[in-house]
Structure formats: C-alpha cells, structure tokens
C-alpha cells in the first residue's frame, strides 16, 4: 500500500489500522537535541480520541503513545544531560490499540458483507479484495489520524521554537457559525485554555503521566507491561474522570466544556443543534478553521508545490470534503478589487489592508496569518437503516441502524487539522531556511 507517506524535508510515514495491534508514525527530518515526552504527545492525542463527551463515539481507546526509536536511551557521555533527547535518527511513535475486544470484532464480522454508506468499505474491498482489512475499516478508519496528531505535534513543537504558532478551532457545527471576525491572538489564548481544561479533565493524562505510572525513564518493555495492565483497567480509569461541570469550567478556564469554539455562546448553540440532530439518529457536519501566525514571507514553491496546494492535501483527512484558503469559494462573489489585499508601508514594514488570500499568493506565504478552513461531513455511521448491497453477491440489502457512533466528528477533526498544517509548514520552512542560506552564500561570494 502506497500513499501513507508525506514530506520532502520533514517526512512522515504512518501505518496500522483500527483493530490491528496499533498504529505507528515514523518521522524523519526532525532536529536532534529536542527533549520530547510521551506525556506531551498524549496531550494532543487526547484532544481527538473518542469517548470523551456526549458528541463522540463511546469507543474507549486511550491513545497512549510509546516513543520507540529516535531518542537517546541515556546520556551520550556521563553528565551530558541529553538522555531522552532526539538524536536525528527516525523517530518512531507507537499507539497501541487497547480497546480491541472480540465482541467488537464479531460485530464487524457479522456486518462486513454489507458496506456502510459513506465509508470506504465498498471501494477498499474492490481495490484490495477479500483480504481487505475491513475490521473497523482498517487504515480507512478515523483511528489512523492519531498518527497525524502524534507526528504533527513534533512539527508544531519545532515551529514554536521558530516563532510560528499553529492553532485550530471549530468555525461552524450543525449550521451554527462562530462570529465571522475572530481575533487570532484571543483565539490562540482560548484554544490553549481549552487544551489545559481537557488535560486537567482527562483521567489517563492524570493517572498515567501526572501521577507517574509511565515515565520517560522506563524502557520499552516496562511501558508495554503497564499498557497491558491499562487494557484491563480502561473502564475503571475512565470512572476517575472529573465531571464536566459547564459553569465551573467556564469560570475557571473561560472555555466551553465540549466544543472548542472561541465564542462560548456559539459553542453552546453548536452543541444544542448537534444534539438535536443526533437525537433523530443522524449526524452533523461543520467547518474547522486553522490559523498559523509568525510565518515568514516566501514559504512555498511554484506550480506543483504551492503552499496552498500542499495545505489542500488535508483532503486526505477522513471526512474532510473541502479545503479553502482565505476567502476560498467566497471569491466567486467578489470583484477583483474587493478580493485584492491592498498593502501599504508603516515604519518600513509592509501592512496588508485585508487577508482574503489567507496569507498565501502565488503559492508563497505573504507574512500574514495563514488561514485554512476544512469542510467536514456528518459522521457516516448513523442510527438509521440505509440501503446497501452484499459486496460478494451484489444483492440489495438494508444496513441496520448503528448506535455506537459519533454525533459529529467535527469536534475531533480540529486537532488533526492543526497538526497536519504544522507538518506541511515545517516541511516548507526547512526548505526555506536552506534556500535563504544558499542565497546569502552566493551573494556574499
């Protein structure tokens, strides 16, 4: 299977499936000397995992990562202080599947003859044949996106050191929109507060990492031993989660308890609208907005590797059916004058009057905030009977309603989009730095 690799300078290869032993992200091109822990990677993974709130599937995967290769096992010389630092070799992050029980596998075995509408199960069967990994949709399941979040966190950490912030939030859910004008500084602050709230309320984050059940000083087999124990304790650990009390969360963190939208009133309206749709057995879609600030002018390449085209590859995220940059499809209703981002100089600096281009023109970054929006469809797994076929005999069939489902996956897509964007930007930033250095060398010569 090809298609599971991205990047030229910062490269990521992913593997695994929903009900295989787990998933893996292998990262190349990252810098040596970076201290990175499983706890901080999990801090992003917990944002997209299922079973957290009333809008997500009840599957109980904790998504606990294990760093397997790419970091120093000990100080390279006595007292060097570089234990657990990246060493420049491929960084492998494993994400074991722990909530993988035969009862769920049997449910898929009993229904896999009849592809679920909206899923890849028919097309993947036709492509790969009877051995297609149809248990939980395999690599076509949303579970594979955990690898993007893990690898993208590494990229985001490097970008942050370079003064680039990448963040994301829900712009629209169930036809309820966040206010059109968003202050990006406030949105970043809100998103960070939302993440802090989720960390504080995640029982695995607290029980496994804060309380030191798994530490970075443990060896791989010691960590897997703990993972085997956790597999049998998932329900008990989940019971330790503090309750999401909306008023208390709003007062303490200044955020909504479920939806990461930088307008609390809109977030509650989104939740209400989504629950109303879910009560009918259906699901809701929406829009995720990603913003990157601090990006220098000139990232990107012409023609086939334009920065906006590279960001368009986020169509590879399951359930994403559209990606727009800046004004996006709205440009069809704008004149050239209205769409153009006019500019002027202030104290020797270029200032743009607007940002309809989303921070990218000609495939190159302009130095403005990069803004991308992703259109996310409603979860295809729904609590309604649907027409389908027997994929072996081609007979017409009816698919029974499925109750174990996400009311929406928009609330789980935003961390994926955030970290995917970070991977693309870091890949181009490394090329940018190399190009700028070569220019200096040539011009000095």
Record keyword descriptors for this entry.
5-stranded antiparallel β-sheet
Describe the structure.
With 445 residues, this protein is of the alpha+beta class. It has one domain (5-444): Chorismate synthase, AroC fold. Helices cover 34% and strands 17% of the residues. The protein has a five-stranded antiparallel β-sheet, with helices on both faces. Helix 1 packs across helix 4. The protein is globular. It starts with a strand and ends with a helix.
What would a concise description of this structure say?
The protein is an alpha+beta fold and 445 residues long.
How many domains make up the coordinates?
1
Task: Describe the strand arrangement of the main beta sheet, using strand numbers.
Answer: 1-2-3-5-4
The major beta sheet can be summarized as:
5 strands, antiparallel
Q: What's the tally of helices?
A: 13
Task: Break the fold down into its secondary structure elements and pairings.
Blueprint (H helix, E strand, L loop, with lengths): L4 E2 L4 E6 L5 E7 L9 H8 L20 E4 L21 E6 L5 H10 L9 H8 L16 H17 L3 E9 L2 E2 L6 H18 L1 H8 L9 H12 L2 H5 L7 H8 L10 H15 L7 E8 L13 H5 L8 E6 L10 H4 L3 E4 L2 E4 L7 E2 L2 E2 L4 E7 L9 E4 L6 E4 L10 H35 L1
Antiparallel strand pairs: 1-2, 2-3, 3-5, 4-5, 6-7, 6-8, 8-14, 9-14, 10-11, 12-13, 15-16
Helix pairs in contact: 1-4, 4-13
